[in-house]
Write a structure and sequence with these properties.
Largest sheet: 2 strands, antiparallel
Structural class: mainly alpha
Strand order of the largest sheet: 1-2
Radius of gyration: 26 Å
CATH topology of the domain at 10-82: Non-ribosomal Peptide Synthetase Peptidyl Carrier Protein, Chain A
Number of helices: 7
InterPro entries: ACP-like_sf (IPR036736), Ketoacyl_synth_N (IPR014030), PKS_NRPS_Biosynth_Enz (IPR050091), PKS_PP-bd (IPR020806), PP-bd_ACP (IPR009081), Thiolase-like (IPR016039)
Shape: flat
CATH superfamily of the domain at 10-82: ACP-like
Protein name: Erythronolide synthase, modules 3 and 4
Order of helices and strands: HHHHHHEHE
CATH architecture of the domain at 10-82: Orthogonal Bundle
Oligomer: single chain
Organism: Stigmatella aurantiaca (strain DW4/3-1)
Domain Carrier: 8-85
Strand content: under 5%
Pfam family, one: ketoacyl-synt
């Protein structure tokens, strides 16, 4: 059992967090990349909340529930907790930096394809009339008999014959 309190250095804090992540994900410590998001190491939202609770206890202070979403990598988290945050990434230039002065221009147009609606007008008609574009799987898409089983527990099978399909999607 570790004693509550702040680790003596940023490196010690990082080692603590790596060991907590390794314990929660069953990954070897050496395989954990501090620059990768915690989710890439297999930490889901429940695991993240558990990690946060353990870290709070180990550090002896309450940590906000949003901390791991604000600092999604071990490097960013430890930088924040130790007060040595990495420099922010350079921001791309703004539109004002790129555009030479004011130029009156408007881009007008809309294109879309949805199940049961090959264009915007048909899509709005579907919405306006409350129509349902869900259909049985078209035979030209795949053989539903080969993939369908009413039992959702059967591996490798789907338990529906219905979906939203865009006509001519392969063209």
């Amino acid at each position: 059992m570790r004693q509550a309190g702040s680790p003596s250095s940023p490196e010690a804090l990082q080692s603590l967090v790596i060991s907590l992540v390794a314990a929660r994900t069953a990954l070897p410590v050496r395989s954990i990349d501090v620059r990768e998001p915690l989710s890439r190491h297999g930490l889901d939202s429940a695991g993240a909340m558990g990690l946060l609770a353990e870290l709070s206890a180990d550090l002896g202070r309450t940590l906000p529930a949003t901390l791991l979403w604000e600092y999604p990598t071990i490097e960013a988290l430890c930088g924040h907790l130790s007060g040595v945050e990495p420099a922010p990434a350079p921001r791309p230039g703004s539109v004002e930096d790129v555009l030479p002065g004011h130029e009156p221009i408007a881009i007008i147009g809309l294109a879309c394809r949805f199940p049961g609606a090959p264009d915007a007008e048909a899509f709005w008609r579907l919405l306006r009339e409350g129509e349902d574009a869900i259909t049985e799987v078209p035979s030209e898409r795949w053989d539903t008999g080969a993939f369908y089983d009413a039992d959702p527990a059967v591996p490798g099978k789907m338990n529906t014959r219905w979906g939203g399909f865009i006509e001519g999607v392969d063209q």
